[in-house]
Amino acid sequence: MYKQELTFIVKSIIASNTVDEHIRCAGELSGFYKKVTKIFISESNETFVKGGIALSSSEAADCVDDSLRTVFFIKGIYKALTKLSIDFPERSINVLYAGCGPYATLILPLLPLFNKEKINALLLDINIESIASVQQLVSVIGLEEYNIHLVETNAITYTKPVDFTIDLAISETMHYALTREPQVAIMRNITRQLASDAILIPEEISIDLAYTFFDYEPYLKYTTDGIKGYKEMQPYPDNVFVDRLFTINKEHCGRENHNSKLESSFYDLPENFSNHPDIAIFTELKIFEDITLRTAESFITNPYCLVSMYNLRDYSKIQLVYDFSEIPQWSYSLKK
Ligand SMILES: C[S@@+](CC[C@H](N)C(=O)[O-])C[C@H]1O[C@@H](n2cnc3c(N)ncnc32)[C@H](O)[C@@H]1O
Fold it and tell me: Which InterPro entries does the UniProt entry name for this protein (predicted)?
């Protein structure tokens, strides 16, 4: 019964076309998970590792309510699985999902759309409670016949089994501007274990620097009346794009580089900045092919304000530094 209900919801997610439809379908998926999850989801198992913080199981569960994120990832992963099924009609597809959380939101709903022999799924999470929750969901939804293997591990250091060639790797372990959570460290470890033709989701994370008026930029936020921001997507008109700081993708992560610090060039600070006083970082995702997640469409693509130029009056140039050796964060250096 639950499998049928989940199939109905995921089909409506794939067919959804408007923001209102996306939000409604994500709400149905969230309600479904709340209804069928029977084990306790811990709020206190947030875990610190070198590379970032793994959310508690409860916070990870709440990610399903980041509606456009959930819908666009599911659409992108469906598209990638469909492509792989066409490319390899004669064999099964190996999926590695790093950071599955207690709901395995980005893969479980899609399984009923494929034959049980078609997909081998390897699901990782650092929190044992999340792994236990997925195990319970697999049985209560009726997905035991699928080849799903659950592993409690740190995805930053994990090594895949030798006989498991990854066709599709998925990880959504990110916070806006790639701060706090370990997306980059996980992508780096997983990418090194991918064949050249494997698909990585998200395909690309772009990080841009702009000078702007931060309070006037679109921003998704929780308010007492629910989530606000989806309908206020106009960028601030006097936003000055400065540069693309970097793009995280298979090529970038696959490079042999043990450095966990990325340093930008030095950029000129404008003398007159009254229309755009804030130094801000913008995140956009190419999830797969034409499926994207733009600024403020989700909590993970909200803009991030690094510093106001009113605090830097004595300087003429700024360099941005991203460091993910411990908890990922941004800092800056200044020149006179
Ligand atoms: C942002 S939540 C996303 C949950 C779910 N994948 C989704 O998309 O709704 C990230 C998940 O990744 C897990 N995670 C974070 N860092 C991890 C690590 N180093 N190793 C394994 N799992 C990790 C967290 O425990 C959490 O369950």
Answer: SAM-dependent_MTases_sf
